[in-house]
Design a protein that fits this description.
This protein is mainly alpha-helical and 321 residues long. It contains twelve helices and five strands. The mean pLDDT is 86. GO terms for molecular function: G protein-coupled receptor activity; olfactory receptor activity.
C-alpha cells in the first residue's frame, strides 16, 4: 500500500508504485524465472571475465584491463535495477520509497555514464593500437589506463549528483504510479507537483556527454577502418577487425538503446515501447556483453578455460590431501 504524508492542503507522496509489473499468478512468475536466470548469468559471466583478466598473465594489456573494468561495472549496473524487478514480480507490494528511488536513479545513471566513458577509453585504446602501433606501448601505459578509468568514474558519479540533489527537493503529490520497470528521470519527474522545466538544462548536459562519447568512438573507428583496409596482409586485416568487432558490437548495442531512450527530445513513446527500450539497455545489453567478449576473442576463451582448469586442479589437489 502506498504511503502518503499530509502537508498543508496537499498529500505528499513518500512511496512510488511500479504499475507495469504483473501479479505473481497473472504472469509475474513467467517473467521472474527467466529474469533470475539472466541476472545469474550476467553476474557470473562478467565476474568470470573480470577474474580471468586479472589472474591470467596473457591478458594483462590495456585492452583487457578496460574490458575487466566494463565487466565489473556491469555487475553493479544491473544490480541497481534487476533485484528490485525480481522483487516486484513476486511481491504484492510493488513499491519503492522516495529515498530508494533517488538512490536507484543515482547509481543506475552514474554507472551507466561511467560505462559510456570506459567504452570511449576503449575506442581510444584501439585507435592508438592500430593507427599508431609503434607509439602505442609508450602512450597507453598502465598508469594512463588507470587514470582514464578513474576519470570515467569521476565523470559518472559527479555528473548526475546535481540532478539527483535537485529532484530530492521537489514535492510529489497526487499519483504515485511509475510507468517504467525502474526509477528513471522522466517518469519520476512527471509525478512532481511543481514546475520541472529546469530539467531541460540538465538533460542537455547529459545529451552533450552522450553525443561527445558517440562522436569520439565513431571517429576513432572510422579512422581504424581506413587504416585496416589499407593493410597489405589479409591476415593482418582480419586480426585487426576481430579485435575491434566485439567492442564495436557492445558500443552499438549500448549507445543505440541509450540514444533511443534519452535523446528523444520532445518525442513521446507508449509505455510498451518505453519498457521495451529500457529492457534493451538494462537487461539485454549486459546479458550479451559476456557472450560477445568471450565468444569473439580466442585469448579470452583460452584464459577462461585456464581459469576453470586451474580451479578444477586445485579442487582435485584439495581432495587428495
Amino acid at each position: 500500500m502506498a504511503q502518503f504524508l499530509t502537508s498543508g492542503n496537499q498529500t505528499m507522496v513518500t512511496e512510488f508504485l511500479f504499475s507495469v509489473f504483473p501479479n505473481l499468478y497473472e504472469g509475474g512468475l513467467l517473467f521472474f524465472i527467466p529474469l533470475l536466470l539472466i541476472y545469474g548469468f550476467i553476474v557470473s559471466g562478467n565476474l568470470t571475465i573480470f577474474l580471468a583478466v586479472h589472474l591470467d598473465v596473457v591478458l594483462r594489456t590495456p585492452m583487457y584491463f578496460f574490458i575487466s573494468v566494463l565487466s565489473f561495472l556491469e555487475i553493479w549496473y544491473t544490480s541497481t535495477t534487476i533485484p528490485k524487478m525480481l522483487s516486484n514480480l513476486i511481491s504484492e507490494q510493488k513499491t519503492i520509497s522516495l529515498a530508494g528511488c533517488l538512490m536507484q536513479m543515482y547509481f543506475f545513471h552514474s554507472l551507466g555514464i561511467t560505462e559510456g566513458c570506459v567504452l570511449t577509453a576503449m575506442a581510444i585504446d584501439r585507435y592508438l593500437a592500430i593507427c599508431h602501433p609503434l607509439r602505442y606501448p609508450t602512450i597507453m601505459t598502465k598508469k594512463l589506463s588507470i587514470q582514464l578509468t578513474a576519470g570515467s568514474c569521476l565523470c559518472g558519479f559527479l555528473l548526475v549528483l546535481p540532478e539527483i540533489a535537485w529532484i530530492s527537493t521537489l514535492p510529489f503529490c497526487g499519483s504515485n504510479q511509475i510507468h517504467q520497470i525502474f526509477c528513471d528521470f522522466t517518469p519520476v519527474l512527471s509525478l512532481a507537483c511543481t514546475d520541472t522545466s529546469l530539467v531541460v538544462i540538465v538533460d542537455a548536459i547529459h545529451g552533450a556527454q552522450i553525443l561527445a562519447s558517440f562522436l569520439v568512438i565513431a571517429l576513432s573507428y572510422m579512422r581504424i577502418i581506413v587504416v585496416v583496409l589499407g593493410m597489405p596482409s589479409a591476415e593482418g586485416r582480419h586480426k585487426a577487425f576481430s579485435t575491434c568487432a566485439a567492442h564495436l558490437a557492445v558500443f552499438l548495442l549500448f549507445f543505440g538503446s541509450v540514444a533511443v531512450m534519452y535523446l528523444r527530445f520532445s518525442a513521446t513513446y507508449s509505455v510498451f515501447w518505453d519498457t521495451a527500450t529500457a529492457v534493451t539497455f538494462v537487461i539485454l545489453a549486459p546479458f550479451l556483453n559476456p557472450i560477445i567478449y568471450s565468444l569473439r576473442n580466442k585469448d579470452m576463451k583460452d584464459a577462461i578455460r585456464r581459469l576453470f582448469c586451474h580451479h578444477k586442479a586445485m579442487g582435485g589437489a584439495g581432495r587428495e590431501i
